[in-house]
Amino acid sequence: MSTAVADKKPAAAEEIPTFTATLIIRRFDPDVDEEPRWEDFDVELYATDRVLDALHKIKWEQDGSLTFRRSCAHGICGSDAMRINGRNRLACKTLIKDLDITKPIYVEAIKGLPLEKDLIVDMEPFFDSYKEINPFLMAGATKGGKERKQSPVERARFDDTTKCILCAACTSSCPVFWTDGQYFGPAAIVNAHRFIFDSRDEGSQVRLDILNDKEGVWRCRTTFNCTDACPRGIQVTQAIAEVKQAIIKGKP
Fold first, then answer.
1. Structural domain tally of the chain?
2. Residue 11: what pLDDT?
3. Residue 83 near residue 135, CB atoms below 8 Å
């Protein structure tokens, strides 16, 4: 016995609405411009698009000369840090729907580092400060070649500062760094914290002496800009305060 099955017409896929957003980007071409200039672009986007998607559409469809950094596009590499509506963010993690799309979206390079082109800055001064704090484990050989053991409590002591992706969002949001290019900056101090409070490390005092310099932790004015800017949620200002306490009272 056969059963007739009525043909069912598949339901039409619901179209995802798009809208037009205006991005106003601070452009700079060293071969042409004496000073940076603002340029606006209208882009058709989905609400779930990210600012990075908008920049891609502009570069691929409107102006191939637009220059910016990006690599993983998933908030891990930290290469696409920029100022979006006056705040340091990662373009790959900033959703268009989380911005006020009734107004233009302003995008510019992070501050305090030499501007090279459009949204790209020279990161060398940032990495120079990072290198100065010896961002690696300083420990002698273990007896018998055994591993260096660490309890969960000891590991948790510095867990927060292991999350740094060196995007420079914290450092380039710091007013002191903007005006004093010699200041180590929050990211360098965060990475020093990661090793200062590591129970396996033997170079804590070396780092504390470095950060006790006039351009070290004492330049911090506790404005919390760095904590607000961190895309990984690191309690940057707290880490700086803990390093200050370790300098005064010694490592606990």
1. 2
2. 55
3. no
Buried b (16+ CB within 10 A) or exposed e, 214-251: ebbbebbeeeebbbebbbbebbbbebbebbbebbeeee
Looking at the structure, do residues 171 and 85 belong to the same domain, yes or no? no
Kindly report the number of other CB atoms within 10 A of residue 182's CB atom. 12
How do beta strands 18-27 and 37-46 pair? antiparallel
Instruction: Check whether residue 54 and residue 158 sit in a common domain.
Output: no
CA distance 222 to 184: 15
pLDDT tens by residue, 8-28: 555 555 677 899 999 999 999
Return the residue matching tokens 């998607």. Answer: 53
- Over residues 199-235, the pLDDT tens digits come to 999 999 999 999 999 889 999 999 999 999 999 999 9
Residue 143 counted as domain residue: no
DSSP labels for 201-225?
-S-HHHHHHHHTSTTTGGG-----H
- Contact of 161 with 188, CB cutoff 8 Å: no
The three-class DSSP label of residue 96 is helix
The neighbouring-strand residues paired with 107 are 25, 84
In the numeric block, which tokens belong to residue 41? 């672009």
Which residues in the chain come in under a pLDDT of 50? 1-2, 5
